[in-house]
Amino acid sequence: MNGALRTVVLTVAASGCLLSVPLFAHADPAEPAQLKTIRETLQKVGEGEGQTYKTFDQKPITTFVGDAIKMILAIIGVIFLTLVVYSGFEWLTSGGDEKKVTTARGILEQGIVGLMIVMGAYVITIFVTNALQQAAGV
């Protein structure tokens, strides 16, 4: 059963890595004329309200790094949440077997500690990203 847990965790981690690859790839395809017109119109409306339109290339590096860290932490959070649900299921289906209950309790404790660490890291990331953005005047 330990091998099955390892397989599930590795599958979720590999899937998260593969699904996040397109987020890091940025291609700037040729814009159709209609999209360009819409973008120019939105720019004019935003300027009237004191807002400016920024493309991906114009975003400060702090925003990009903060978004990447937040995405990675979200994926790790999902992994730990999956461990908590899995351990709860194992505990409920243990049928009173002390060995299974002890194993499930250990996984549950590790999953909860992992979730707390990820949430703490997420809060720190938000705080640091906001502080850097304010310092940069963004």
Briefly summarize what is shown.
This protein is mainly alpha-helical and 138 residues long. The protein contains four helices and no strands. Helix 3 (61-92) packs antiparallel against helix 4 (98-136).
Summarize the structure in words.
The chain is mainly α. The chain is built from four helices and no strands. The protein has helices at 2-24, 33-48, 61-92, 98-136. α3 runs antiparallel to α4 (98-136). The radius of gyration is 22 Å and the shape is elongated. It starts with a helix and ends with a helix.
From the structure above, extract its key features.
138 residues
Shape assignment: elongated
- Approximately how much beta-strand content do the residues carry? under 5%
How many strands, which pairing sense, and closed or not: the largest β-sheet?
A: none
Q: What are the secondary-structure elements, in order, as H or E?
A: HHHH
Fraction of helical residues: over 70%
* Count of extended strands: 0
* Low confidence ranges: none
